[in-house]
Amino acid sequence: MSLNKKVGLFIPCYVDQFYPKVAIATLELLRKLGCEVSYPMNQTCCGQPMANAGYERDTVATTQHFLDTFESYDYIVCPSGSCVHHVRDHAPSIEGKENNQKDIQQRVYELTEFITDILKITDIKGSYPHRVGFHSSCHGQRGLRLASSSELNQPVFNKAKELLANFEGLEWVELSRKDECCGFGGTFAVTEEALSIQMGKDRLQDHISKEAEIIIGGDMSCIMHLSGIASRNKQSIQFKHIAEVLNEAML
Amino acid sequence: MSHPIQAAKFLEDKSNAKWHDETLWFVRDKRDTSSKGIPEWENLRELASSIKDNVLSNLDSYLVEFEKNAIKNGIKIHWAKDAEEHNQIVLSILKEKDCKAIVKSKSILTEECHLNPYLEENGVEVVDTDLGERIVQFLNQPPSHIVLPAIHLKKEHISEIFHEKLQTEKGNNDPYYLTQAARKHLREKFLAAKVAITGVNFGVAETGEFVVCTNEGNADMGVHLADTHIACMGIEKLIPKREHLGVFLRLLARSATGQSITNYNSHFRSPSEGKEIHIILLDNGRTKQLGREKFRNSLKCIRCGACMNTCPIYRRSGGYSYDSVVPGPIGSILSPGIDLKKHSSLPFASTLCGSCSDVCPVKINIHEQLYEWRQEITKAQSSINAKSIAMKIANGIFSTPYAYKLSGQIMRGSLKILPESVTYSNLNTWGKERDLPELPKQSFKDWYKNNGNE
């Protein structure tokens, strides 16, 4: 299919630096799905780490820069629920540019919701013969509502699962605690280190006890934390970003 | 002591921390099942939230209406601007009644006012009659949870306490046996008390009555045996009409414990002949919070405790780690408004996962308020501390593409060349119990320059 719209690839700063393969997979996947994608070279960070640490007021220039960088795109797509949540819902309002900012914010999408809601694709054909556990990032799930929340009395849905479920051979693991936080939480990971580690270990254990081979996530920040703990404890479970899985499995 | 230090201490006893987490998760799970049994659950939450919005926007007139109707019913109304005034009012009533021993059912508001130590200093014996509260009172501890005050204690521990205080059999951990012992002990206290104190769950403006919810019936037992009932009530506890109880009582019990209804929902309207009812209406910072636009709706709270049970931090760090009368997520947005300096670590004791906001029966946006408190706290802290300078530099880097690129290269470069002993030393908290990702040869930006075009 062809969308005939310009998609700007918004890559979180830590993905740019630490996980280029996730960014590459996102780019390739979107192109396979028929999008005209480019990556504006001037992009930096969305400002979330600073804002969540209590310094939202110091992210005005960063936010302004983000808006300037992506203004000309029809859609801005990012393989991170967390960064999208920040840009849409938390970035400081830029004085005199409020309307323009709102307009740009409405064009920012997390990767899976862009595929299911804008491209309207849910039946990607492919094969992924693995037993997988999915880790919903809280900001994606409860911030962007990419999946139903276990606290709410609502129909169950999960946009990532919609995309993965059709793959031949894929076994989806049901977790005991469907959407408990992994304990990353940005600066929380270091300021509340003991809790962060315990939460991560508990989350890993839920997947491991259900014999998941691979943990798939929509946010590399959660995955960086979980895989860091698993690797330190010599746990052999693997980790993938959903963009990598979709890109790899798609026929 | 700050939250991270207390939390780390709590986590040292791994099996206890695991047990605490699982116990509270069990309550959260019961709440899920119970709330999902009601198809209109989300509408009820919305309705409760709107009713409370209305109350908060018209609090002045509802308070006047409530007072007028309560007085008409023969209730005596007192107004207290702060904890000190509240406690003085209680003491003056006790003096007037020549009362030296009282029974009190669960009231977080009296904890907030530190009423127990105040009365004890003034020669009054206070007996908390809620079983969990009595247990922590024996230990001279505050409640660790607002609904489940002794949830941090196992039955073996309670057996030891009762053996010492109530002379129960040593080593008998049978919950039924222990409960019977407490019952007998409390019965004597109930019979002896001339004055009973309760909290208030809901005050109804149109009728001037109030409702107290307990599972043990201890509020009723105390009140019916005493001549004088003192009800301590926060000014935000009002609802406009009696019919609104149909919304709140359904939400409260399900959210708190997963029960469909609290065992005793007692309505108090006017005193029986020869008896007295007093209501003390307490402000103690509530009007200040009402004036804070971003934080005012924290006053909608009906004290169900669901945000504690769901919170992955609370479950793994325990109520005492918050060092605040109301612990957990709701405490972390209420307490900074009372003492910003003392409670400055609490809004950071969260990953902003948002579970608290989704579980809240009155739809308080708890995690968003945690975020907003962070902004307030960093403003209040010295603007020249190390973290703020780092943030200003970061803003400089992220608003300048070249600086970002350079800092990224330095970051990846230094991680590659630094010896493990530096990266994984205690200086690097990330690396204490986590490995760093394997570092790629080039950033995505570098890759894209050469390979990005189709």
From TrEMBL, chain A:
It comes from the Bacteria. The lineage of its organism: Bacteria, Pseudomonadati, Bacteroidota, Cytophagia, Cytophagales. It comes from Belliella aquatica. Coiled coil: none annotated. Pfam families: CCG. Residues 7-87, 132-226 form the Cysteine-rich domain. This is Glycolate oxidase.
From TrEMBL, chain B:
Residues 291-312 form the 4Fe-4S ferredoxin-type domain. InterPro entries: 4Fe4S_Fe-S-bd, 4Fe4S_Fe_S_CS, FTHF_cligase-like_sf, Helical_ferredxn, LUD_dom, LutB/LldF, LutB_C, NagB/RpiA_transferase-like. Pfam families: Fer4_8, LUD_dom, LutB_C. The keyword 4Fe-4S applies. The keyword Transcription does not apply. This is 4Fe-4S ferredoxin. Gene3D superfamilies: Alpha-helical ferredoxin (1.10.1060.10), NagB/RpiA/CoA transferase-like (3.40.50.10420). PANTHER family: LACTATE UTILIZATION PROTEIN B (PTHR47153). It comes from the Bacteria. Keywords: 4Fe-4S, Electron transport, Iron, Iron-sulfur, Metal-binding, Repeat, Transport.
